[in-house]
Specification:
With about 450 residues, the chain is α/β, with parallel strands linked by helices. Helix content is about 40%, strand content about 20%. It has three domains: about 5-160, 3-Layer(aba) Sandwich (Alpha-D-Glucose-1,6-Bisphosphate, Chain A, domain 3), CATH 3.40.120.10; about 170-370, Alpha-D-Glucose-1,6-Bisphosphate, Chain A, domain 3; about 375-455, Alpha-D-phosphohexomutase, C-terminal domain (TATA-Binding Protein), CATH 3.30.310.50. Helix 1 packs across helix 2 (about 60-70) and helix 9 (about 265-275) packs across helix 12 (about 345-360).
Amino acid sequence: MKLFGTDGIRGHVGSFLTANLALEVGISAGKILKDRVEVDHENKAHVIAIGQDSRTSGDMLSSAISAGLTAAGWDVWHIGLCPTPAVAYLTANSPEIFGGVMISASHNPPEDNGIKFFGANGSKLCGETQQKIEAVLDSRLHTDLVNTSTGWGKYHEKSHLISDYQESLQSSIATDLSELKVVLDLAYGSATRVSLEVFRNLGAEVICLHQEPDGDRINVNCGSTHLEPLRNAVKEHGADLGFAFDGDADRVLAVDSNGRVVDGDYILYLWGQELMENNQLPNCAIVTTVMANLGFERAWQKLGGNFVRTDVGDQYVHAEMMRSGAMLGGEQSGHVLCRHYAVSGDGLLAALHLAALAKQKAPLAELMDQSFHPYPQLLKNVRVEDRELRRNWQTCDVLVQAIALAEEDLGDRGRILVRASGTEPLMRVMVEAETLDLAQHWTDSLSGLIEKQFVKA
């Protein structure tokens, strides 16, 4: 049973992600985590913290996985509605909490949901541990555990713990944000908890969009995947900048006063410059993924920086940062991790530090003018429902040969990335080139071929 993708377990609620599955995953994870705590972390109590975004299926899944964990002997502390990085922070910084669970499908539509696990240090569980959980499910050992266990855990509401996370955000920047007018698009999701209060506590004038938690509208025509409402609001209100979060607030994209989109590449570049100037960036290294723009890479190298790429997925970025000792990394999609302040990617944290740069150094629009010019980059998604076809796309000789031909044509004028999404039933085609026409040609050609081979077959 292959459950875990690039960001936990994720899928459509009802047809894939059910209460029964969440219960069984909770029991199985409880067994594996119990083995780990007894070996590696005797000083931590048997407590798992659980948070969730605003999706209507969240209560059902949270209750089911809590039942599984308590059946396996764990105490559950329910944080309730909160950003994913709040769960990571509390897990890493509380001596009582051994692990964390976040019920969220991040940027996915409302009908999806997911389960993310965090270990004792606040990092997402490694692939090996995820495989062990799947193995317990496959072997049905979780059923035996329920039948024989006598040490049931307890369930506690602990929503007040979010204040610890809020305080960590506010104390992470050394300046107030007074005289800044900021628009926040909270996407009807996790960012509706603490975001507005944090920015106002730091002195900013704040205009909020989509600020009520609403599981039926989370991410719908709003947030980091739909920036038009934010761009319009920034211009309408004459704001200095704006931020749009995804459903669980571990990602953020920004907009400057001119309406230009400031994606994760720009956030990494600007924050990286600041850290480099303050001698806080070991080896002047930024870790990002194969999706990062070629213009960003060449501009960073021109500054004397080291540029390291990984596979797509924040877990791969985090793993490389831990291996190399890098302190800043992230993804073009807006998932940014700075280890000076956090143990996981955090959209709110990144937004605060970008706002602080705009207050201390120059308006964000000026910082953008002084940064880099991106190569034209096009991304096209092709919906492929068949999971096995997506995962094994490289066995399609026609597509592999077409990609090789495109790469030969581009040479050093650009690059191509074709991959299966780890979170949605999509094949993604990304083409980057010196000219928009060249990028458009190969994007259309390759995505059309995928539709012919995998969709219309």
